[in-house]
Amino acid sequence: MRKLFIVTAAAAAFVAVPALAQDSGTSESAPESSVSRFEPYVGVMGGWEQFDNERNAGIPQSPDRRDRLDGSLVQGVAGVNIGLVGPLFVGVEGNAAKGIKGDIDWEYGAAGRVGLRTGTSGLIYGKVGYQWVNFDRFGENSRDYHAMTYGAGLEIGMKGGVRVRGEVNTFGNAHSVRPMAGLVKAF
Fold it and tell me: For the segment 119-161, what is each residue's pLDDT rounded down to a tens digit?
């Protein structure tokens, strides 16, 4: 699972670096107010998550080694980015996700983000936070499982403050893979 996460993050960086190189003059051409502004945003995303089926993964292990906990998700996000020097930004984000098919009932969490702006509205970022997961598979009274979450993403700006977002996250010590895609609206 770790190798898959590393390969996915490297592929995202490979795609994003040419965009960053193309916009290397961004801080000179962008208005000063856009570099240091406070930018709240909300978004809706969809995706899928699959958890490892091994001991000490932070979630219950299935008796059948081929059977992994997984499912499709719809997620809402809300956060704020704060521009720093040049294209550098930091931010915080909260999320809540509902499983729509599979073993996952709910997920929720919060993360800090750091990254680079590309062009006038694109972003490349990494994130670290904490995530809670609840599984349908264990019934109504199942407990929430929790661990650190790590991820990387890319947002491509469109008109009207809307960005297309793609990101990959992992749960715990790389015990899941969670690709997500959707739309984010900045204010």
Answer: 888 999 999 999 999 988 776 677 888 999 999 999 999 989 9
Residue 133 CA to residue 151 CA, distance in Å, equals: 16
CA pair distance 176, 2, nearest whole angstrom: 9
Structural domain range at position 154: 2-186
- The β-bridge relationship of strands 162-171 and 88-102 is unpaired
Q: Worst-scoring range by mean pLDDT, 9-23, 58-72, 109-123?
A: 9-23
pLDDT digits (tens, 9 = 90+) for 91-127: 999 999 999 998 899 999 999 999 999 988 899 999 9
Integer Rg of the chain from CA: 17
Can you tell me the distance from the alpha carbon of 114 to that of 153, in angstroms, rounded to the nearest whole number?
Answer: 10
Closest by CA position to 43, among listed 87, 7, 96 = 96
> What residues form DSSP beta bridges with 131?
109, 147
Q: What is the CATH number of the domain that holds 143?
A: 2.40.160.20
**Alpha helix locations (H) across the chain?**
2-22, 26-29, 32-35
In a 3-state reduction of DSSP, which class is residue 67? coil
Domain count, the chain: 1
Q: How far apart are CA 115 and CA 39, in angstroms?
A: 14
| Contact present, 166 and 154 (Cβ < 8 Å) | yes
Supply 64's token pair: 């059948």
